[in-house]
Design a protein that fits this description.
By secondary structure, this protein is of the alpha+beta class. It has 3 domains: about 120 residues, 2-Layer Sandwich (Beta-Lactamase), CATH 3.30.450.20; about 80 residues; about 180 residues, 2-Layer Sandwich (Heat Shock Protein 90), CATH 3.30.565. Helices cover about 40% and strands about 20% of the residues. The strands form 4 sheets. The protein has a 5-stranded antiparallel beta sheet with strand order 2-1-5-4-3. A 5-stranded mixed beta sheet has the order 7-9-12-14-13. A hairpin with a 6-residue loop joins strand 10 and strand 11. Helix 6 packs antiparallel against helix 7 and helix 8 packs across helix 9. It is elongated and about 100 Å long.
Length: about 400
């Protein structure tokens, strides 16, 4: 049976759509009037709008007022040649605030007046930079913890012992003061003990861990205690391969993240919600100190809440020691989380706006002894498409 020219053109168009939708970067086709004519799947995800809705919008309605993107499009139209610009903020309240992108704008020569816009989010590179900062901060805390353990705990023990001796002969009013000395000494010792965890560089046994078992365990702990009145929503990828990790430490990481999320939504009553998600995101690779090869981080685990969000001025340093939004917090919980994730060769980041805060953890997957360390091909997992292993 012969193929007609119309059928051939239809097949080519279908292939073109498939290619565009396979790209991880948002791509838009802009008409001469500034209206959006077409968009790929990545653009739908970036703007959190369907193609049908985008096609009813003008580009200037989706980007910040006076955005450099609009002037770039005018420049490309007049010069009829491609233009690139880097680190442009396309963030709006609709798409989640700060969205740094690199812009690639080119004319569609086959259709005069039409412009192709490709966006490349800078979040991946920024994640790498932030992760190196987190590791540097963790090393600083390790040195500080060692110093505190040696220089503070011993004198505190003497202070507490002296206060107990004084308490035996003190009046009832003075006993309140000696009791206060003991309590405050104990509080400082507890803080130092928590910081000593940062100095523990002993190797930890790691192996294949089912992340869904970890998250289910954390959820049960939370629902039986601090998150008893919070609604949990789960969005899991059931075909996800195991993560290369220590199970106890992963429980510690996600218990801390869920506890923070529960505290963030405590005032929402019946509207309080925490969402746990897992997904396979190929294309992220990270150089780990001590290893010649880069480690792939295709496993994404998220803890999301609908609380008020993290103050914008705290976000860049959120995982540094002693940074906290809590009046009674020590600011060590997220620093410890960042250390554990970093020790596993992973990345943790936070995106936050009112009613939507996401803590995202990217981790390496477990590979059998027959596989090369740098491989992260999901085609070894039954029922998983081959293209999932491709890098961006």
């Amino acid at each position: 049976m012969t193929t007609t020219a119309a059928e051939h053109r239809k097949a080519l168009l279908s292939d073109s759509d498939a290619i565009l939708n396979a790209l991880p970067n948002p791509v838009l086709l802009i008409g001469p009037d500034g209206k959006i004519i077409d968009a790929n799947n990545a653009a739908e995800a970036f703007f959190d709008l369907s193609t049908q809705f985008l096609q009813r919008q003008s580009l200037k309605e989706l980007v910040p007022f006076g955005s450099p993107l609009l002037s770039l499009i005018d420049q490309v139209r007049s010069g009829n040649s491609p233009v690139n610009e880097y680190k442009v903020d396309l963030g709006t309240p609709r798409n989640g605030g700060d969205r740094q992108v690199d812009l690639h704008v080119a004319p569609l020569t086959e259709r005069p007046g039409h412009i192709v816009v490709m966006l490349q989010e800078r979040t991946i590179a920024d994640k790498m930079d932030r992760q190196l900062t987190h590791r540097s901060a963790a090393r600083s805390v390790i040195a500080l913890a060692a110093m505190l353990a040696h220089e503070i705990k011993n004198p505190l023990s003497g202070i507490r012992g002296a206060a107990q001796l004084l308490e035996q002969q003190a009046s009832s009013e003075d006993r309140m003061l000696t009791r206060l000395i003991c309590d405050e000494a104990d509080r400082i010792v507890t803080l130092v003990d928590r910081m000593e965890v940062f100095g523990d560089d002993r190797p930890v046994a790691r192996g294949p861990v089912n992340i869904h078992s970890v998250l289910d365990h954390v959820k049960r702990l939370a629902q039986s205690g601090f998150a008893r009145n919070v609604r949990f929503v789960e969005d899991y990828d059931p075909s996800l391969p195991p993560v290369l990790a220590n199970q106890d430490q992963l429980i510690q990481v996600f218990l801390n993240l869920v506890k923070n999320a529960a505290e963030a939504v405590v005032d929402l009553g019946t509207d309080a919600e925490i969402q746990l998600t897992t997904a396979f995101r190929p294309g992220v690779r990270l150089s780990v100190p001590g290893k010649k090869s880069r480690v792939s981080l295709p496993l994404e685990f998220c803890v999301k809440d609908n609380g008020p969000g993290v103050p914008e001025d705290l976000l860049p340093n959120l995982f540094d020691p002693f940074v906290t939004t809590k009046q009674t917090g020590s600011g060590l919980g997220l620093a410890l989380v960042a250390k554990i994730v970093g020790d596993h060769g992973g990345i943790i980041e936070c995106e936050s706006q009112p009613r939507k805060t996401i803590f995202r953890v990217l981790m390496p997957m477990y590979n059998s002894a027959k596989q090369q360390p740098e491989q992260s091909h999901r085609d070894d997992v039954p029922g998983t498409p081959l293209h999932a292993s491709q890098d961006r």
